[in-house]
Amino acid sequence: MLKVALINGSPKAERSNSQHIIDELKEELKEDCRIEEIPMHTGRVENPRKLFSCSVWVFVFPLYVDAVPSHLLRCLQQLESYMALEQPSVTVYAVVQNGFYEAEQNQPAMEMMENWCARCYLNWGMGVGVGGGGMLTMLDQKHNFCMLNIEETLGSLAECILEEKNAPVQFAEPNLPRKIYQLAAEKSLQKTAKANGLTREDLRKRAGED
Amino acid sequence: MRLIIHDLLREQAELFIPPQDEETKIIYEKGRIHPCTGCFGCWLQTPGTCVMKDGYHKMGKELSRCDELMIVSRCVYGGFSPFVKNVLDRSIGYVLPEFEIRNGEMHHALRYSNTIRMRVLFYGSDIAEWEKETARRIVEANAENLGCTVEEVVFEMQDLGGLPC
């Protein structure tokens, strides 16, 4: 039976937006393959044996400053060094999600993952860029109208995974206008700031201002 | 002010990096840098400053003071090395949590009004053409997100002796 590693590359691990994507993929895949969930939030690959026992690796992580987060980059380098000793036959997929609206902003991070595969002689499966990361908790509500585009794209990814197939990059955004997403995301940020005792003006402070 | 972020070991840095003076601030590895945990504390708890006080927590302030940013980094899979990327990940307090649309895309609004000219030197003995393409794209995206202009992106095809991977 196909063994798939679902790798959460968020530093927030199980409390992350990336975990909602992993949960969605788990639902899509669970009947047809064996799944290993592997967190990579510490900057070290804690259990490489478990990872190397899988023939498909699916990295799911947030976009940090237009690229792969630094802790995950350290893990990729660690894995590259292992592969100098043991060359696995693995197909790699990557799902990159960001807090902006446009899924295309994930393109450079997906390219880095593809470049890493080339360096490690791994088979690159496909990349999926997801925008509107602030709404990914809504993936837990099955078939929520706002999440239909993302659900569908993750479904296509799951099909590719099960066949270990290569496919062109896909992008998916929430099914609502960008302005509405922007307003909702900012409202959520202001709610957290208020809970921290900060006003909107406080958030805009510059260095040196009291 | 000029801000230089690099990943070179001390002996190599002395060859390639100008000395620190009142016009130049240099960020290099001096003690362990904590990875960004995505807590948004630099936006929503202590605006502009990271909540992890490890010596790299004032990157937003450092960027606000500079008009030239020079980055020297090993090219890793078409991006920055883990140390340099870690510094950049810890720099997001330079921008605001709220969004604005710039050049047709959503980005974080800018906290400061300084304009930074960005110069990047990627090094490595075997940087592939496809990695150079990704690296140029990443620098352009960084400039867009941080409100910088890209002055140059240069590839030095030799190992300048950076931090161990």
Ends apart, CA distance between termini of chain A? 61 Å
* Poorly predicted runs of 5 or more residues of chain B: none
| Known CATH architecture of chain B | 3-Layer(aba) Sandwich
Q: Radius of gyration of chain A over alpha carbons?
A: 18 Å
Mean pLDDT of chain A: 96
Assembly context of the chains: heterodimer
Total separate domains of chain A: 1
Mean pLDDT of chain B: 95
CATH superfamily of chain A: Flavodoxin domain
Total individual domains of chain B: 1
Strand order of the biggest β-sheet of chain B: 2-1-3-6-7
Notes on the protein architecture:
- The complex is a heterodimer of chains A (210) and B (165).
- Chain A is an alpha/beta fold.
- Chain A has one domain (3-198): 3-Layer(aba) Sandwich (Rossmann fold), CATH 3.40.50.
- Chain A is built from seven helices and six strands, in the order βαβαβαβαβαβαα.
- Chain A has a six-stranded parallel sheet with strand order 2-1-3-4-5-6, sandwiched between helices.
- In chain A, helix 1 (17-29) crosses helix 5.
- With 165 residues, chain B is an alpha/beta fold.
- Chain B has a single domain, classed as Flavodoxin domain (Rossmann fold).
- The chains are: A alpha/beta (210), B alpha/beta (165).
